[in-house]
Design brief:
The chain is mainly α. The protein has helices at about 5-25, 35-50, 50-65, 85-105, 120-130, 170-180, 185-195, 205, 210-215, 215-230; strands spanning about 135-145, 150-160. α5 runs parallel beside α7 (about 185-195) and α5 crosses α10 (about 215-230). The model has no long low-confidence stretch (mean pLDDT about 90).
Length: about 240
Amino acid sequence: MDLEKKQELFRQIDELTGIYEQYNPIGEGHKFELSVVKKVYEEMISYVIVNIDEAETLRKWMDSHDFWKTPASTRFHGNWESGLCVHTLLVIMNAFWFAKSVVENYERSPIAGKFDFNAEDIFVASLCHDFCKADSYMIEYRNTKDFMGNWVKKPVYRTRDDSRNLGHGNESVLNLIECMPSFINRRNVLEAVSRHMGFSDLTDTEKMNYSNFLQNPLVLLLQLADQAAAAWWDC
């Protein structure tokens, strides 16, 4: 990445980070207003997505696939209504917060210059990494006792019975391409989304060449951002 590209990347990261900080949409204990979270997404999409038609397709996909109400998981991080959009926004932000140091570190490495990426790549990879989860859960009710010892029906999420999934990362790649077909030529982004789960979502055959994907700094950046959102932010 030449100096001009790096300066533009860092400038756009600062602008996108400023959008988040302006609204401060997620408070302590995951307190948030969905309308404010949506506003942040809208301003980021309008700012960073270059293809206007694909930006509109992306918005429609998120609305039609219940991205705004879906949980991020059934038992772990973000296992509550709207957990997916909150988790995803935190992944986006952690990716931006880590990006500058990742770029500087990568450029010191022996493979510097092998891969390149921009702010749009970071945003799209982070936004779409868990698209496979959108509209994939359903609510059921289980009997449990409240703090008074009374039996009550508690809503819980579980995976839909009719769910069809080609694998966590790969299904999200398909969803990304459905929204923004031009990204079929952005392999660095597709690799980041496909491999964002690390070893936990790979077949034995895929694990054989896994280290090759780790050369792509966008893969490591998304893995780091995703883990940070789940482990440090509990979301």
